[in-house]
Design brief:
The complex is a heterodimer.
Chain A (H helix, E strand, L loop, with lengths): L2 E5 L1 H11 L4 E3 L8 H12 L5 E3 L4 H13 L4 E2 L4 H6 L1 H9 L5 E6 L13 H4 L7 E4 L3 H18 L3 E6 L8 E5 L2 H7 L16 E2 L8 E2 L5 E2 L2 H13 L1 H16 L7 E4 L6 E6 L1 H15 L4 E6 L1 E3 L3 H8 L4 E6 L9 H10 L8 E6 L9 H16 L7 E3 L3
Parallel strand pairs in A: 2-3, 2-4, 5-7, 6-7, 13-14, 13-16, 16-17, 17-18
Antiparallel strand pairs in A: 1-8, 6-15, 10-11, 12-14
Helix pairs in contact in A: 1-2, 1-7, 3-5, 7-10, 11-14, 12-13
Chain B lengths: L2 H4 L21 H12 L3 E5 L3 H5 L11 E4 L5 H14 L6 E7 L1 H5 L2 H10 L4 E6 L35 H6 L5 E6 L3 H11 L6 E6 L3 H4 L6 H10 L6 E4 L2 E4 L1 H9 L6 H5 L9 H21 L3
Parallel strand pairs in B: 1-2, 1-3, 3-4, 4-6, 5-6
Antiparallel strand pairs in B: 5-7, 7-8
Classes of the chains: A alpha/beta, B alpha/beta.
Chain lengths: ~400, ~300
Amino acid sequence: MEQTLILTGAQAAAEAARLSRVQVVAAYPITPQSKIPETLSGYVEQGALKAEFVRVESEHSAMGVCIAASIAGARAFTATASNGLAYMHEQLHWAAGSRLPIVMPVANRGVGAPWTILNDCQDTISQRDTGWMQFYCMNNQEVLDLVIVAFKAAEKLLIPCMVCFDGFLLSHTYMPVAVPGQKEVDVFLPPYVPFHTMDGDNPVNINPVVTSEPIPDPDGVLSPGYIGFRHRLQKSHEGALPVIRQAGREFGQVFGRSYEDPLFGYRAEDADFVFVAMGAIAGEACEAVDALRQEGVKAGVIALRIYRPFPALELYQALRHRRVVGVIEKAISYGYEGALASELKAAFYGKGGPMPLISNYIAGLGGKELPTADLVEAARQSITAAQNGVVPEGAQWIGC
Amino acid sequence: MSEQSAILDYPEQEYILPGNRLCAGCGVTIAYRFMLKALGKKTVICVPASCLTILHGIYPKTPVMATTVNNTFASTAAAASGFSAAFKATGREDWHVLAMAGDGGTFDMGIQALSGAAERGENIIYVCYDNEAYMNTGSQRSSATPAGALTSTTPIRPKEQFKKDFMKIMDAHWLPYMAGISSAYPADVYKKFLKARQIKGTRFFHLSAPCPTGWFYPTKDTVKIGRMMVESCIFPLYEIEEGRLSLTGKSLSIARSGGKKPVDEYVAIQGRFKKMTAEQVAQFQKHVDEQWEGLLARAGF
């Protein structure tokens, strides 16, 4: 039976793990993620969750435990943030390269130095190229729902998935969250069946040294070289969006909240000016859109729920007839601009026809307050620049 | 029953097929063969980047007939913990988890994950196969390299610091079982593994694995060198059960009947020690004597 509870984002992530019947949890605490392992360790001790909770000594080991547990055929779960995620970096590559459906919420937090415990998305954007899928949540309901959807999609695709949600803005903020019943979740997400079952009579060597060129096995069958494995992972990513959409549609059929669309639109249908964003900042953009609409500006928001695999075609189709787009990001690719802005521009390359002028705003790093008025002003400037035919150069930093 | 006759009782099943990519004369394989015989087929082996990665072969071929999972360099004990947790969570506790890391992956990069797993009491068998340098990458110095040794990162001035006493570190984790074993005494390896497999919790083995490639001695002398390490009490054979230390095999007979050899010949036979001065050899001998006296006292001699 579904019931509505008042939960923080961290609690919602823990509820999702419980409902997903995770079998091995390994986590190291880091603000603002700590409430996730705290809650789950309590569930395990009370018997509310039948799982092994491994109280590891580091994030590097947390992912090491999850990798091994997933290879052994257990549904594995961890959560982290910030420098903890950075500390896991080589293990992220290892998990994706091993094709393991590990799901990991990340309570987005800025990365030191200097230290900050507050929110931005530099931690997960910095891990963009590790081969993981990345979902971004706008509210605590999405945190709960997308963790469950992530397991469903990851286990079909054999690609691990980060479910990213803003530290403090979501992780520590209470919101009403519809918590599905266990029976319904069990129907949506059946037990994990690993791709390979360990068998003492049929031993294998998993993740050995691979050569650059294909080598024949003892039966003469050519096995892939290193680049062949990398290509297979990319091919799986290229085919992942329909699988995620299917999982999101099925979730909607069971629970009434569909995640079929990788994009979320707010007042976007007739908008000339569109904010593009991911995570909680998209919610803040909605406030700015309401203000702009009052001024007579046809403004809207299009938010990405899925960042990897990148919904390039969906973004192109959603934005091709707009006049101006403002991409708001809580991360920067140093030496250039926000990664999302670059990728959005690339989505228009080679398509021909009109495309919007695309501005890039960097905002909210390390928890910096982003007043609605600042977003409204940024939109106004972009619109004026577009009217004057000026193409904005580089990213504009708000609040600096 | 003497160790000689016990050989007849070893399982015939071989888990390492003839022909692998390790250097000729490698000490690791001798002991590894008997470990796998003692544990049997329901064993998963966790291997970091190390010489053992090479033994296990290049995809898609392997000479090892046992389930093996390669992991990142620093995370062998974490990987082992993950298997142990997954086996418990999925009702397959009849599987053994064997972590096999070198001195680089144990004394140095892997120490954090190992200390974590040992403190948690993970149900794993962890072996540090110690060839006293980063041999897989070309004989660079490690914290297991003894003072006086030339390595490829101490190429002109031999290493000045003593080898880290890793058993002391592991002993501080209150483990149910720990043992010092040597590739030169495979019967002792087998016997200790049979004992360890009956015990729950973190079991730690320190394996002395002489390395002709990095120690610069003829490949035929691996067992000879391994024996010299035990006979001169540089690497004693012993076990620690719930804190109680007992010497075993050759080391026990030296404790009882004497016959401890000086380190001179052991030093002289290896190219890595060619720059050691008489003073440094004397220092080495003094250090070995002190360590041995400590063990004797703890073993009740």
